[in-house]
Amino acid sequence: MTRSRSSKSRKAPSRSRFRFGGLLLRLCLIALVALVGWVIYLDAIVTSKFEGRRWEIPSRVYARPLELYEGAPVSPAGLAIELQLLGYQQVARPDDPGEYSRQGSSFTLQTRDFSFPDVLESGRRVQLALTGDRVERMRILAGPAAGIVRLDPVQIGGIYPGHGEDRVLVQLEQAPPNLTAALLAVEDRDFREHWGISPMSIARAAWANLQAGRVVQGGSTLTQQLVKNFYLSREQTLTRKFNEALMAILLDWHYEKEDILEAYLNEVYLGQSGNRSINGFGLASQFYFSRSFSNLQLHQVALLVAMVKGPSYYDPRRHPERALARRNLVLDLLAEQGVVAAQEAKVAQAEPLSVVERGRFSENRYPAFIELVHRHLTRDYREADLKSEGLRVFTTLDPQIQAAAERSISRTLAALDPNQGEAPLQAAAIFTGKENGEITAVVGGRDPSFSGFNRALDARRPIGSLAKPMVYLTALAQPEKYTLITPLKDEPFRLVFENGQEWIPKNYSGEYHGNTALHEALSNSYNLATVRLGLDVGMEAVTETFRDLGVTQPLPQYPSLFLGTASLTPVEVAGLYQSIAASGFTVPLRAIREVTTSDGKMLSRYDLDITQTFSPQAMHLLHYAMQETMQEGTGRSVYRYVPASLNLAGKTGTTDDGRDSWFAGFSGDHLGVVWLGRDGNAPTSLTGATGAMRVFGETMAAIPQHGFSPILPDGVSYYWVDPETQMRTEKGCEGALLLPFIEGSQPQKSVACDGSVGGRIKSWLESWFE
Amino acid sequence: MSSKTTVRHSGRRFLNVSPAILMTGTLLTLLVGCATAPDGGPIYVPAGETDRTPQERGAPTQSDQRPTEEAPERSRFPQQQPQQPEPRPDPEPRHRTEGSSISPAAAGLVAQADKAFRRGNISAGMASLQRAQRISPDAPVIYYKMAEGYVLGDNLARAEQFAVKGISVAGTDEALQRSGWQLLADIRRARGNAAGARSAEQRASAL
After folding, report:
1. Which of A486, A501, A621, A752 is 20 to 30 Å from the Cα of B176, by its Cα?
2. pLDDT tier at B80, thresholds 50, 70, 90
3. DSSP-assigned beta bridge partners for residue A588
4. What is the per-residue pLDDT across A159-198, written as a single tens digit (0 to 9) for each?
5. DSSP 8-state symbol, A186
């Protein structure tokens, strides 16, 4: 297009201005569109996360609750341990939930409310008198009447999300008086008026910082703080600050102040415990004061609010003076602003910090048991849900038995292997309820707090003489052929297999005992007699006995099976001996009772399950011999550790060169399996009796309980017999034993005290003339 | 059409009426009776130290070194007299013919379970019964009640096992044994095991 020269030069400056202006306008438009797009994007993030308001709440794992009733087996020391674990405070006069007083073996408790899977257990004021390690008398002074009072269960750990955050969700309505006011007064005075960000606060802070010459005040609102913690990382970049401001505005625009405040109460970071972070006021109340959120007193509220600014810097346990100073500063501020009366603030300032010793509830204090629980849970629940859904897991752990087992392992191993050296002696233990298979204690190694290789669950070792009861049981289940007095030959022999290989078993002592009554061969654990018996009844039959009693692992099909070349883990051995303890009823072991959601809805219940899998009559005979083991046989030295009146049944087990020291046994109430040995399978100088049984004994000695006294089953009767002659005899005759027999298998012939049948007629006549 | 007895479980009617009433009546009477009977059960032993001092406990005695089948070869000693007397446990293995009486606390839970079953809440009833079993693991009534719960839940196989368990801890108590055998007979009949039911009934009437 042609133009005159003059018009061209006249139009040029305005066109370039126009082009420049147009470019600027276009750039602004693009920036605006980008900003709008960015805001929409942020808005989506803000709303989606806030709507669900989903925090990843760890699953909480609880021990069994202690049940108190007249006659309950509780010792004063045991109750004190339980209360300490629960964070109950010992005071002169218990008024608040979570307090108790004690005078010797009398306790007065103010119990806490707790929502169990089946029912809400209300807090009560209970008076207990303990005598002889039992609750002799229980009176309920306040609260609903009941024959049984369940204490809240000890939280023994949790299953945590990867980022390690822990929290207890609270609602705004549960807040103690003054908490909200205090928080706003200290952190965000204009909370209710501003629109997410507060230019007033920023200005105020800028002024204060200018005056001080450094940063002394922050201008962030609570909303901004929430955004920072909930949505963003902790970096301090300008971009982050920009996003934070935008998102705070969006949050304030979408949601009510109360909702934002509640989210803040649950989000704020308030401390660290190992690699768990303490988030939210709900958890912080428990962590610092062992109190529930709604129960906080003014000075405690002030301390928590004071800590918001810097939970590590103002950690009341590590820096008590700083914490106290800032707390009192906060109280001053509250009085100044009229949140509390001046007098109230003064009283609160005079209070000590009253922070409790760091509880262990937020850590996994029993890693070996928790691992077992975790394995069971992952069978039925997804790992992701366990870490984030806040499930409540109610387990069977008994903290008192666990403490006793841990203590006895520590003490015994320190005594047996003080120097440790390159291949230290190791240990594993597992205890269960004798009649219900509930696992009450698990120790996975010499150092119970170390969470490494869990020997109780995973150390697979030859069981040695622990296999023998299965051989004898197989025989005793054939009463037409075997009774407790059947003579066995404890004499050397040689086995030659089809491939020409030889096996010459030996007794450990190297000695032979000739003719031995069956019950003695077991209670003294004679190898030769046992192998002969096993060969008589047959490997198949013995293997079947193992299977009937719940063993599913492969078993060697060689005669050495009778001497325990089968390898099992301690928990598998516990399952096996559980069937023996429960008189032929297989009771699967359980570590979990129930699982509920965070608000109490039942998800799973693991019920007691019993199945009769073996003859109770044969079991009763075995019970006789296993008691004899502890009274006169290889287990008799247990009474160096255990009161003489506690009747036990058990079996010791040792493998070659003492590489494994085993013990499995039970009382009337509890069953225990212990293993000692070296991880690398090096020899020890221990036997089942000098090693594992010592741990068992010391543990049992610390637990008040009933001795073993089996109920005579149908079809079994006791007779006085003379094992020498294999005949019935009378009480008081020399060598006479009172033994159980399955009906029909008892000796048919009788013998008199002086050995002759005629002697009986004589003594009968004599009694006529007395 | 099958000739076996079917189990109707609308509400509480799961057995012929009369045995159920008989059993409930018997059980409730037994609960009351048992709650006041003296405990003939095993000895309760408080926790505590043994008679020996820690030094005595730690030191091996000669009798420890007496060859038992658990001693490894290298500690082979000739038989010797023990230098220190060992504490004597019970001289003989124990057993008893009488079962244990039920603790009042457990009895209360059984009554609660009964109420729950009547309301149709099997789950709550079973929860109470499991608590009761932890308190008095040798009380037959608890197992019988659990069996009842399983019948209500139509799990007859499990019900039978719990009935058998209850009988096994009844000891010489004939009334408890009888209730158990009758319960077992009813369950077996409902499962179609006529022969088993008959033999259980014979046991019941023999008492």
Report:
1. A621
2. very low
3. none
4. 777 666 777 888 888 888 889 999 998 888 888 888 888 8
5. H
Residue tagged active-site, from A292, A465, A523, A615: A465
Q: Which of A26-30, A726-730, B12-16, B180-184 has the lowest mean pLDDT?
A: B12-16
Three-class SS of A548-559? HCCCCCCCCCCH
Under 8 Å between Cβ of A521 and A530: yes
Q: What pLDDT score was predicted for residue A276?
A: 78
Of A436, A525, A623, the CB nearest to B134: A436
The alpha carbon of residue A293 is apart from the nearest alpha carbon of chain B, in Å, by: 30
The Cα-based distances of A163 to A57, A58, A166, A286, A443 in angstroms read 11, 11, 9, 21, 28
Which residues from A are below 8 Å from B71, CB to CB? 508-509, 687
Min distance B16 CA to chain A CA atoms (Å):
26
B195 close contact with A: CB closer than 8 A: no
- State the angle between helix axes of B174-191 and B194-206 in degrees (0 to 180), rounded to the nearest 10: 170
Q: What radius of gyration do chain B's Cα atoms show?
A: 24
Query: Which of A411, A614, A709, A731 should be substituted to probe chain B, the one whose Cβ sees the most B Cβ atoms within 10 Å?
Result: A709
For residues A622 and B95, give the distance between their C-alpha atoms in angstroms, rounded to a whole number.
Answer: 12
Residue A320 phi, psi (nearest 5): -60, -35
Query: How far out from the chain centre does Cα A194 lie?
Result: 48
Which residue in A608, A667, A695, A731 has the most chain B C-beta atoms within 10 A of its own C-beta, making it the best mutation to test that interface? Answer: A608
Residue of A nearest to B60 (CA): A690
Q: Do B68 and A687 touch (CB under 8 A)?
A: yes
- DSSP 8-state secondary structure symbol assigned to residue A152: P
Distance CA A444, CA A378 (A): 20
Tell me, yes or no, if B19 comes closer than 8 A to chain A by beta carbon.
no
A570 band by pLDDT with thresholds 50, 70 and 90: very high
Considering only CB atoms, which chain A residues are within 8 Å of B58? 415
Helix (H) or strand (E) holding A568: strand A567-568
Helix axes A257-267, A179-187, angle to 10 degrees: 90
Determine whether the interchain pair B90/A117 forms a contact, defined as Cβ–Cβ distance below 8 Å: no
Collapsing DSSP states into helix, strand and coil, what is residue A261? helix
pLDDT of residue B90: 66
How many degrees, rounded to 5, is the angle at CA A688 between CA B44 and CA B72? Answer: 145
Mark yes or no for CB contact B169/A641 under 8 Å: no
pTM of the model: 0.80
Question: Phi first, then psi: what are they for A392, rounded to 5°?
Answer: -110, 120
- pLDDT tens per residue across span B25-73: 445 444 443 333 233 358 889 987 544 444 444 444 433 433 344 433 3
Residue A301 tokens, joined? 């509220």
**Is A354 designated active site?**
no
Complex ipTM, two decimals?
Answer: 0.80
Listed ranges A175-184, A351-360, A435-444; the one with the highest mean pLDDT: A435-444
Does residue A59 have an active-site annotation?
A: no
Contact pairs from chain A to chain B, CB under 8 Å:
232
Between B162 and B35, where is the model more confident? Answer: B162
What is the rounded average pLDDT of the residues A209-218? 75
Neighbours of A26 (CB within 10 A): 10
- B146 — contact with chain A (CB < 8 Å)? yes
Task: State the Cα–Cα distance between residues A153 and A171, nearest whole angstrom.
Answer: 23
List, as ranges, residues 75-94 from B with C-beta within 8 Å of A.
75-76, 86-94
Q: Which of residues 23-52 of B touch A (CB under 8 A)?
A: 41-52
Q: For chain B, give percent helix, strand, coil, nearest 5.
A: 55, 5, 40
